[in-house]
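WARN retry 2 of 3 for item q-0093 after timeout on previous attempt; input resubmitted unchanged.
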Amino acid sequence: MDMKKRIHLELRNRTPSDVKELVLDNCRSNEGKIEGLTDEFEELEFLSTINVGLTSVANLPKLNKLKKLELSDNRISGGLEVLSEKCPSLTHLNLSGNKIKDLSTIDPLKKLESLKSLDLFNCEVTNLNDYRDNVFKLLPQLTYLDGYDKEDKEAPDSDAEGYAEGLDDEDDEDEDGAEEDYDEDAAPGEEDDDDEDVEEEEDEEGGEEEEEDLSGEEEEEDDLNEGEEEEDDFDEERGQKRKRDPEDEDDDDDEDD
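OK item q-0093 returned
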């Protein structure tokens, strides 16, 4: 994919002025030059063009707010003087894996007064005698060279990607905030579920009470029915007795005669 098309895809329906971070790694440059990137990206703070076949940064637009520039694994051998003009706020510069052979190539970086971290891994210049001491002398504004300071203490982020991780942290915070908002939005639903559970329990208790009432009524009805049956039996017995009494009287009369 060529660089112009990649930039168009990375915009994702945003305007260039809305973009703060742009990653163009592994796309194809046009004749070793940057293309498709304009000064409309006025808010751009992080630009990565790793392994895109660059031989020059001459076509870099004016990016006043750019703080970190990733140019590793390209074929750049010079022309770095444009960086102080086009990217005056640069603090992190990664030139690892390029064709930088001597200190004179990086001499123009002296004009980048805010530059704190420079990476030259896998460049021939690192093979020079007293390479580190000479670079720190040449660029006194530097704090870290190849991930270490003058005292050979490792940088908090050994590959000098503190700025990029800062952007990632901001994204994580936004995501966490979105999750919290989602939880807050979801809370009423959970309360509704709890209310439904309580209502179901109350319904179940009410159903049990109704069943108890029904069973009590049935028992009362059974008792009444039994009482009525006993009364009926008693009445029948009395009726039979009454029927027998006149006969008994007749028998007594006959005996008296």
